[in-house]
Design goal:
The protein has about 725 residues and is of the alpha+beta class. The chain has 5 domains: about 200 residues, Alpha-Beta Plaits (2-Layer Sandwich); about 130 residues, Alpha-Beta Plaits; about 110 residues, no CATH class; about 130 residues, 2-Layer Sandwich (Alpha-Beta Plaits), CATH 3.30.70; about 100 residues. It contains 15 helices and 36 strands. A 6-stranded antiparallel beta sheet has the order 9-1-8-3-10-15. Strands 20, 21, 22, 23, 24 and 25 form a 6-stranded antiparallel beta sheet that branches. Strands 32, 33, 34, 35 and 36 form a 5-stranded antiparallel beta sheet that branches. Strand 29 and strand 30 form a beta hairpin. Helix 6 runs antiparallel to helix 7. The longest helix is centred in the middle third of the chain and has 21 residues. The protein is globular.
Length: about 725
């Protein structure tokens, strides 16, 4: 049964002088697992000797995976310079009376924290409970952790994993979770032996050797201790709430009321906390309201995000949820904040209250990583305001360009202020919303402290993924500047050809694309994997039972069907939801497709400088939406008999295709340009599908779907009565 070893370390005083432990860089807080392990070794030692049982227990401990660590919030004090004798008495002739002449300054800058809150270290193990008990007895002998002035004591417990997890969750400090490579020193196989050897060598590091008639004292540096290096993540703590009416339904707030809504909610929560904890009023005002906060307090302030509903094409983006982010450095207890928010009634919330919830799917849409972001509430850029013009006034194109250029520069500064080091490759600013049901930037000025001319909608694109939630600008603590990640699909890539190709030539274009990809994937013997060839290694057709090779298509966005602007390569698991993906398939797909920069398509010419890009949300290929319009002919998957009705035959075939691809059954199928050969065969048609729920693409159906047939686009126009 899985068990946990939980060691709680308490300091006599709320100060710690250790530095450069790997956590938080040079700050050195909290003490690393390696430093605790050294303290345990020192506690177990009797002079230079370790008892056999203690040695076995420490050897067992160093072989365990790195522990989780939860520590109270701490801040660095001011620098204190102390002058101490340098270890260089020979420079003054070895006279101890002259030691004052070789003093050097040492900088001390302790961490301050709440001494009543312990540091928790939690190791997980499968076997060795007796060893864990021995480590607990060693921990009880601990008297110091860090430098010599950092007096401490510890207690160990062996718990089941559920109780250990509950203890970590109830702890008021920030939880640090190990994962991957990093810089935090941790005990590792061989650490104990290296510490024992270092101690033995330290005792003989000064030696007196005779050189002729002289005696010379030599110094030998003892070998360093051996530790592993581990990366630790400090996840932001999040609280989720919903706006509910007295009857239990959602009490939605307008999107453009984000600023007054968050500001009133913030003030109500701060008042509730200050009334219950008057001694902490100053700290609460700094970390919640932001009043009298210093630059060092910005990283510790809680963030209140008004979460609008997003997703489906026609959803109204009203505020129905609230996400509260509590930074790891914030000293306010999580349970106190949860109590303060739950049930609060602030001005503007007369029709509802905040209800705590564990449902986080809508908020998670804003917390994912992405390459592209778009504001859903505008960014406040006080340093880049548009010029006010009267009703009859006008602005020249040059003036508008200058205003947008100043706003883009302010966006770069705003990103730097929130700690985004990944500089965007593209920035676009405008007054209009990017979402179809969004609101103009100036409409958010009502009830805020910002001029409507300082509000901008912003779109960002980065060269590497950035983790959300991303909220920037001067009003980021009051609901403004919230950005929605645009999901991109690494398994769905498109190439912009740079010119238009007639639709009748699309099959030849796709055929050239298939040949190019197979050539890029071919090995030294000319073999091509099934992912790009659709054939088994022996050359026979694919027998996997599902679609296991790429889908290729040509389409054009925002243009008539007789034009062509891009080529699309979709991995089989993107189109066939029932297809099984091997762990190496995604890397293989990306490695081959992203090599394509030059395409020869026979008489259609040569296309050079091709750059693959991931298709993103709201692209016509992915939607999501309920209505999908065919862009290329659908070809039935089987032959029609003479007695069959062509339209009913095609509709039945489409229903079966949707079922095979893992799609829901269409609620309505509309056919146009139905054609049947003189001897029956496979009928074709242009198709329009309507589903009962929103469906995410890409959708390619029918016999020729791997060559671009049966390609559908999401219908972006507003629904009509006849559209279902």
């Amino acid at each position: 049964m899985p068990r946990s070893l939980l060691i709680a370390v308490r300091f006599h005083e709320g100060r710690y002088h250790g530095v450069a432990d790997g956590f938080d860089g040079a700050k050195g807080w909290p003490p690393s697992p390696a430093r605790l392990f050294q303290a345990l070794v020192a506690s177990a030692a009797r002079g230079s000797r370790l008892e056999a049982d203690d040695q076995d227990a420490l050897l067992w401990l160093e072989r365990l995976p790195p522990p989780r660590v939860s520590a109270p919030a701490a801040h660095r004090g001011r620098d204190l310079k102390l002058f101490v004798p340098n270890n260089d008495l020979d420079s003054v002739g070895g006279d101890p009376a002259l030691v004052g002449k070789i003093r050097v300054g040492k900088i001390w800058r302790p961490c301050f924290f709440d001494a009543n809150v312990p540091i928790l270290y939690s190791w997980e193990f499968e076997s060795g409970e007796a060893m864990a008990g021995r480590v607990c007895s060693i921990a009880e002998r601990l008297c110091q952790l860090g430098r010599g002035v950092d007096m401490a004591w510890a207690q160990g417990q062996v718990l089941d994993q559920e109780r250990a997890q509950a203890a970590l969750e109830a702890h008021s400090g920030a939880l640090r979770i190990p994962g991957g490579a990093g810089q935090v020193p941790t005990p590792h196989r061989g650490t104990l032996d290296s510490l024992v050897e270092r101690h033995a060598r330290s005792r003989t590091r000064l030696r007196t050797e005779r050189t002729g008639r002289k005696q010379v004292q030599t110094f030998t540096q003892p070998p360093p201790a051996y530790f592993g290096r581990t990366g630790y993540n400090t996840p932001v703590r999040r609280l989720h709430f919903e706006l509910r009416s007295p009857k239990g339904g959602f009490s939605a707030q307008p999107l453009d009321s984000a600023f007054p809504f968050v500001a009133s909610l913030r003030d109500a929560v701060a008042k509730r906390l200050m009334d219950s904890m008057p001694n902490d009023s100053a700290r609460i005002e700094k970390l919640i309201v932001g009043r009298n906060a210093s630059s060092a307090d910005l990283a510790r302030r809680i963030r209140i995000l008004a979460i609008p509903s997003v997703g489906a094409e026609h959803v109204v983006p009203s505020i129905r949820r609230v996400l509260v982010e509590v930074p790891a450095e914030c000293p306010l207890r999580l349970d106190d904040l949860k109590w303060a928010f739950a049930g609060v009634k602030a001005p503007g919330l007369e029709q509802g209250i905040l209800v705590s919830t564990t449902e986080s799917r809508m908020a998670d849409r804003f917390c994912r990583s992405a390459l592209a972001f778009e504001t859903i509430t505008p960014v406040a850029l006080s340093s880049a305001q548009r010029r006010r013009i009267g009703e009859t006034g006008q602005k020249s194109a040059r003036e508008r360009q200058q205003e947008e250029r100043a706003a883009i520069g302010a966006v770069y500064q705003a990103l730097r202020h929130v700690g985004i080091e990944n500089r965007p490759t593209d920035v676009h600013v405008q007054r209009e919303p990017f979402q179809k049901r969004g609101a103009l930037a100036e409409s958010f000025a009502r009830g805020s402290r910002f001029s409507k001319h300082a509000l901008w909608h912003v779109a960002l694109r980065f060269g590497s993924p950035v983790l959300g939630p991303l909220f920037v600008g001067d009003g980021r603590f009051c609901g403004l500047g919230l950005m929605l990640p645009k999901e991109s699909y690494d398994s769905l890539l498109a190439f912009d050809l740079g010119r238009r190709v007639a639709q009748r030539d699309w099959p030849r274009l796709v055929q050239g694309l298939r040949r190019a990809l197979m050539s890029l994937d071919a090995d030294d013997r000319g073999g091509v994997k099934r992912l790009f060839s659709g054939h088994e290694p022996d050359g026979s057709p694919d027998r996997s039972g599902h679609h296991s090779h790429v889908f290729l298509a040509a389409d054009e966005v925002n243009a008539d069907l007789d034009a062509r602007t891009r080529l699309v390569v979709a991995a089989p698991w993107m189109v066939d939801r029932t297809a099984k993906r091997q762990p190496s398939d995604l890397a293989e797909f990306g490695n081959v497709v992203r090599k394509l920069h030059d395409l020869r398509a026979g008489s259609l010419g040569r296309f050079t400088g091709l750059i693959p890009h991931s298709v993103e949300d709201e692209d016509p290929l992915v939607g999501p939406t309920k209505t999908w319009v065919g862009q290329t002919l659908y070809v039935a998957t089987r032959n029609m008999k003479r007695a069959d009705d062509p339209q009913e035959f095609i509709k039945s075939d489409i229903v079966n295709e949707c079922r095979r691809r893992g799609l829901p059954k269409p609620r309505d199928i509309e056919l146009h340009r139905v054609k049947v050969g003189p001897r029956g065969g496979r009928p074709t048609a242009m198709v329009k599908l309507r589903f009962a729920v929103s469906v995410r693409g890409p959708i390619l159906l029918g016999r020729t779907s791997h060559q671009g047939g049966g390609l559908f686009h999401a219908m972006t126009s507003p629904p009509t009565r006849n559209a279902g």
